[in-house]
């Protein structure tokens, strides 16, 4: 199995909180990227490197092929992933933000483990909507050694994820399964008696394709990339329908997730989801309280000017979580 570059691990202690506006302290993507080094490991990136208006090396984020080549170079340099590709039109995620979510989840688990992050394949994580890119299992396994189960409703996305897993010899670390019922989240996916230490999800955040398209146009305008002479992609960073929108948008999806999670309250230690729209957090927290969640954590994240957050919840009290830890996690 390919190994990421070695680096020192922080001493077992209470995990450090990220500074406002900055990436998590354990995030590998601090500061500006060393493009010569990235190109050395991934020569194909060279033809996409440009000089931005500030005189710094960058890539054109309006070019899907440039974004894909950049992600491939980052995964190779920072996580030892040698082979990575996605079909045209599928979501090509910004890797630093995805890594931040995983580091935040690691801190959440550490809080139940005396400040020490549980590592190794005994930690079972379920990625709802693994996508064609398989990004969370790749990073989560290489950072912490966790075992992942990635689920999706899209057969093409699963085929792509499987190709990534197999080409990197990660089949023993990452399982994939299809959710056959598109309107279900956990039901029909988590088997009777199956246990997961955490679930994670990057939910669709628009209510329609039209809304997703308008949102993408606003982003291009804010980035100063709207130019009549250029043919820009309809959706920045790509994305198929199920990746970007669902009936009722993010709010409705999160409500369904909360409601379904109650049925698996004894089979999952911590449920979690990204929440793109901050205005959806109060309603989600209220619904969780009505659903008898024992603890609810909202963790703010930031990547420069971009603000994001995830909400995590558990139906297990402190004594039950301690029993879970003793039964499942290696010291």
Write the layout of secondary structure elements.
Layout: H1 35-41, E1 49-51, E2 57-59, H2 64-79, H3 95-111, E3 124-128, H4 135-144, E4 147-152, H5 155-167, E5 174-178, E6 196-201, H6 209-222, H7 241-244, H8 249-261, E7 268-274, H9 281-290, E8 295-303, E9 306-314, H10 318-328
Parallel strand pairs: 3-4, 3-6, 4-5, 6-7
Antiparallel strand pairs: 1-2, 7-9, 8-9
Helix pairs in contact: 1-2, 3-4, 8-9
Structure explained in plain terms:
The protein is an alpha/beta fold and 331 residues long. The protein is 35% helix and 16% strand. It has ten helices and nine strands. The chain has helices spanning 35-41, 64-79, 95-111, 135-144, 155-167, 209-222, 241-244, 249-261, 281-290, 318-328; strands spanning 49-51, 57-59, 124-128, 147-152, 174-178, 196-201, 268-274, 295-303, 306-314. It has a seven-stranded mixed beta sheet, with helices on both faces. Strands 1-2 form a two-stranded antiparallel sheet. Helix 1 (35-41) packs across helix 2 (64-79) and helix 3 crosses helix 4 (135-144). It is globular. Residues 5-14, 211-217, 226-237 and 239-246 have low confidence and may be disordered.
Structure summary:
The chain has helices at 35-41, 64-79, 95-111, 135-144, 155-167, 209-222, 241-244, 249-261, 281-290, 318-328, and strands spanning 49-51, 57-59, 124-128, 147-152, 174-178, 196-201, 268-274, 295-303, 306-314. It is α/β, with parallel strands linked by helices and 331 residues long. Helix 1 crosses helix 2 and helix 3 crosses helix 4.
């Amino acid at each position: 199995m390919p190994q990421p570059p070695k680096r020192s691990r922080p001493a077992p202690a209470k995990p450090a909180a990220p500074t406002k506006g900055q990436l998590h302290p354990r995030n590998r993507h601090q500061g500006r990227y060393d493009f010569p080094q990235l190109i050395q490991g991934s020569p194909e990136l060279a033809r996409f490197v440009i000089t931005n208006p500030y005189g710094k090396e960058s890539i054109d984020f309006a070019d899907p092929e440039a974004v894909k080549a950049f992600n491939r170079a980052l995964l190779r340099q920072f996580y030892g992933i040698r082979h990575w590709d996605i079909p045209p039109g599928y979501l090509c995620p910004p890797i630093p933000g995805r890594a931040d979510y995983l580091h935040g989840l690691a801190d959440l688990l550490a809080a139940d483990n005396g400040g020490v992050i549980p590592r190794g394949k005994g930690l079972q994580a379920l990625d709802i909507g693994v996508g064609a890119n398989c990004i969370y299992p790749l990073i989560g396994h290489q950072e912490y050694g966790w075992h992942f189960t990635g689920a999706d409703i899209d057969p093409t996305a699963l085929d792509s994820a499987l190709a990534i897993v197999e080409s990197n010899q990660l089949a023993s670390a990452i399982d994939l399964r299809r959710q056959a019922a598109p309107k279900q989240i956990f039901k029909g996916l988590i088997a009777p008696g199956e246990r997961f230490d955490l679930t994670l999800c990057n939910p669709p955040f628009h209510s329609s394709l039209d809304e997703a398209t308008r949102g993408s146009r606003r982003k291009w305008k804010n980035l100063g990339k709207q130019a009549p002479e250029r043919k820009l992609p309809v959706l920045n960073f790509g994305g198929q329908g199920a990746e970007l929108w669902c009936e009722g948008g993010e709010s409705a999806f999160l409500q369904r997730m909360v409601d379904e999670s109650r049925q698996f309250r004894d089979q999952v230690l911590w449920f979690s989801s990204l929440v793109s729209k901050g205005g959806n957090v109060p309603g989600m927290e209220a619904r969780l309280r009505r659903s008898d969640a024992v603890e609810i954590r909202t963790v703010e994240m930031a990547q420069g000017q971009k603000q994001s957050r995830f909400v995590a919840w558990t139906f297990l009290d402190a004594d039950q979580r301690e029993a879970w830890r003793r039964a499942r996690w290696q010291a």
